[in-house]
Amino acid sequence: MNEERRPDPSKAARSGLNRQTLVKGATAGLGAAIAIGIMEWFSLASRFPLAVIPFATSIVLVIGSPDAEPAQPRALIGGHLVSTLVGLMVLKVTGPNAWAAAAGVGLAVLAMYLTGTFHPPAGINPLLVILNNLPWSFVLAPVFVGVLMLTGFAFVWHRLNRLHGWPQRWL
Question: I need a labelling partner for 35 at 20 to 30 A (CA). Which of 24, 61, 136, 141 fits?
């Protein structure tokens, strides 16, 4: 009987861990933690609970995968604005309900594709807007102000921590 030899998954995981990966991951983790701390301060100042400010996954994407297309400023800023506006329009037409929230997310994905601003983390914006019956001012604060803060933070963070900075392009 010839037994098939399988690789040890724990050994494979350990072999991918090297000093460069550890430093890169720790730096991204520190940047994400600082950015979330700033968002927490912003949530207190704007009186929106942090859970309603849709930037945690955007922070992870922009800090952890800065070269990805959805992490570029056009997608980051545009995706949040487009998806929030879609959510507000759907809310205006339908009122707050689960089916409207589902439709709002789907329409936001379509709108982000059509405008070249696809940013997956922004897909939660219509859900938040519709289910929480948020006002039109939500698009300005916390969304617009918050996404500008995140863009500024990412710009400074990557200038300090990367050889080639961020972003690859603005538009």
Answer: 136
